[in-house]
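Supplementary Note 3. Input sequence used for the single-chain structure prediction.
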Amino acid sequence: MAMFDFLKSANDKRLDEIVDRLKLTYSNAYKDDTQRIFKEFTDAYDNLKRNNRLSDKQIQHYDEVVADYTQKIDKLVNGNNRNRYYPR
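The predicted structure, written as C-alpha coordinates, is reproduced below.
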Protein backbone atom coordinates (compact mmCIF):
# COMPACT_ATOMS: atom_id res chain seq x y z
CA MET A 1 0.00 0.00 0.00
CA ALA A 2 1.45 3.31 -1.06
CA MET A 3 1.90 6.12 1.42
CA PHE A 4 -0.84 8.34 -0.02
CA ASP A 5 -3.41 5.68 -0.99
CA PHE A 6 -5.91 7.34 1.34
CA LEU A 7 -6.00 10.27 -1.10
CA LYS A 8 -7.07 8.09 -4.04
CA SER A 9 -10.66 7.92 -5.16
CA ALA A 10 -12.60 4.66 -4.92
CA ASN A 11 -12.52 4.43 -8.72
CA ASP A 12 -8.76 4.88 -8.79
CA LYS A 13 -8.29 2.24 -6.10
CA ARG A 14 -10.52 -0.20 -7.98
CA LEU A 15 -8.55 0.22 -11.21
CA ASP A 16 -5.24 -0.03 -9.36
CA GLU A 17 -6.34 -3.28 -7.69
CA ILE A 18 -7.14 -4.75 -11.11
CA VAL A 19 -3.80 -3.52 -12.49
CA ASP A 20 -2.00 -5.18 -9.56
CA ARG A 21 -3.69 -8.50 -10.36
CA LEU A 22 -2.84 -7.97 -14.04
CA LYS A 23 0.83 -7.41 -13.21
CA LEU A 24 0.92 -10.58 -11.12
CA THR A 25 -0.67 -12.83 -13.72
CA TYR A 26 1.43 -11.32 -16.50
CA SER A 27 4.65 -11.81 -14.53
CA ASN A 28 3.74 -15.48 -14.09
CA ALA A 29 2.98 -15.79 -17.83
CA TYR A 30 -0.61 -16.96 -17.28
CA LYS A 31 -1.98 -16.15 -20.73
CA ASP A 32 -5.68 -16.86 -20.16
CA ASP A 33 -5.87 -15.18 -16.77
CA THR A 34 -3.88 -12.17 -18.02
CA GLN A 35 -6.26 -11.72 -20.95
CA ARG A 36 -9.32 -12.13 -18.69
CA ILE A 37 -8.06 -9.60 -16.15
CA PHE A 38 -7.03 -7.17 -18.89
CA LYS A 39 -10.57 -7.34 -20.26
CA GLU A 40 -11.93 -6.75 -16.76
CA PHE A 41 -9.64 -3.73 -16.45
CA THR A 42 -10.53 -2.25 -19.85
CA ASP A 43 -14.26 -2.78 -19.24
CA ALA A 44 -14.07 -1.04 -15.85
CA TYR A 45 -11.86 1.73 -17.24
CA ASP A 46 -14.06 2.32 -20.29
CA ASN A 47 -17.16 2.46 -18.08
CA LEU A 48 -15.61 5.01 -15.70
CA LYS A 49 -14.23 7.05 -18.59
CA ARG A 50 -17.55 7.02 -20.46
CA ASN A 51 -19.39 8.21 -17.34
CA ASN A 52 -16.86 11.02 -16.68
CA ARG A 53 -15.73 9.50 -13.37
CA LEU A 54 -11.99 10.02 -13.98
CA SER A 55 -9.85 13.12 -14.17
CA ASP A 56 -7.77 13.98 -17.23
CA LYS A 57 -4.63 12.96 -15.33
CA GLN A 58 -6.15 9.57 -14.46
CA ILE A 59 -7.26 9.04 -18.05
CA GLN A 60 -3.75 9.79 -19.30
CA HIS A 61 -2.25 7.37 -16.77
CA TYR A 62 -4.66 4.53 -17.55
CA ASP A 63 -4.37 5.09 -21.32
CA GLU A 64 -0.65 4.41 -20.88
CA VAL A 65 -1.43 1.26 -18.88
CA VAL A 66 -3.76 0.06 -21.65
CA ALA A 67 -1.16 0.72 -24.36
CA ASP A 68 1.60 -0.96 -22.34
CA TYR A 69 -0.37 -4.09 -21.53
CA THR A 70 -1.82 -4.34 -25.03
CA GLN A 71 1.75 -4.78 -26.30
CA LYS A 72 2.80 -7.05 -23.43
CA ILE A 73 -0.18 -9.35 -23.84
CA ASP A 74 0.32 -9.51 -27.59
CA LYS A 75 3.89 -10.67 -26.99
CA LEU A 76 2.78 -13.11 -24.30
CA VAL A 77 0.08 -14.67 -26.45
CA ASN A 78 1.87 -14.62 -29.79
CA GLY A 79 5.43 -15.14 -28.59
CA ASN A 80 8.28 -12.72 -28.09
CA ASN A 81 9.92 -13.52 -31.41
CA ARG A 82 6.83 -13.47 -33.59
CA ASN A 83 8.58 -11.61 -36.43
CA ARG A 84 11.99 -13.14 -35.95
CA TYR A 85 11.92 -15.12 -39.21
CA TYR A 86 9.53 -12.91 -41.11
CA PRO A 87 10.57 -9.29 -40.53
CA ARG A 88 8.32 -6.63 -41.95
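The chain has one domain: 9-77. Helices lie at 10-27, 31-50, 56-78.
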